[in-house]
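Example record

One chain of 292 residues, shown exactly as stored in the release files.
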Amino acid sequence: MKKILRFLSIPVWSLILSCTSGESIQIYTGVVEGTAIQIPAMTGGQIIDLLIDTGQEVQQGQLLAIIDTLELSYQRDNLKGILQEIASQEQSAAASSARAQKELSYVQEKYQRYNDLRKTESVSQQLVDDLKNQLQNAESAYQIARKQHESIASRQIQILSQLKSINKKITDARILAPSDGIITNKYYEKGEAIPPLSPIAEVINLEQVWVKIYLSEKMLPQIKTGQEVKIKIDGTDQTLAGKISWINIKAEFTPKTILTPETRTSLVYAAKVLIQNPDHILKHGMPVEIHL
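Predicted structure tokens for this chain:
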């Protein structure tokens, strides 16, 4: 006696039974899915060039669109001017700090020398006290000069960070394909303004696709991760090889779109079948049969 079980995993699940001789075969019918990527415009602005159209095949790194960066270039020039000014201030502050440090070292040595002489009463206390005041003033002057130098250096770091951000936005204005695939949706046209981080198009990679099926609890002992399966395209005799890549460890209720009321409350386990598709024989949304 040969039993053939047929399951439709998405969007409809049905059960067909027939009897012939042979071993049990499970046939699931599902829908092919590819990796869909929403391609974002990291930099917002007017689209001055759009080099793609729906249905076009693209390669990873291929230029897809260009966003206007005129205003960003003005901001970059302004930041470069500020950096030049800061560089001049930094040189002046560094020189002032060096002079203040040199003056402090000189007064420190002189104060120490006279303070030692005071112990032998070779100099007056008044002279030592005056040098002590000079030392305090030199220390204050050095601290002020050092803080000014540090403040300018900190400002320079901030401007450099802003400049890097502007440069990145200008680079991101050239939108590149994140992977090989086919443009399935185009959300903007040339001349339109796109907000930052909004998707400009969708690309689907068909090099590797998958089909989700749902397994009953009784089927779990017979199916393992890594198990090879056959994929048959509806309406043809062509078959491809696939592999079970994942089986959910949590049960879920059968999708509400099933046709059989008796199995509406049955618990099932979702599984994912990976299919290598280098020739793009399988398309996104195509129904196929999974033979286990």
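Notes: The chain has two domains: 2-39+203-291, 70-172.
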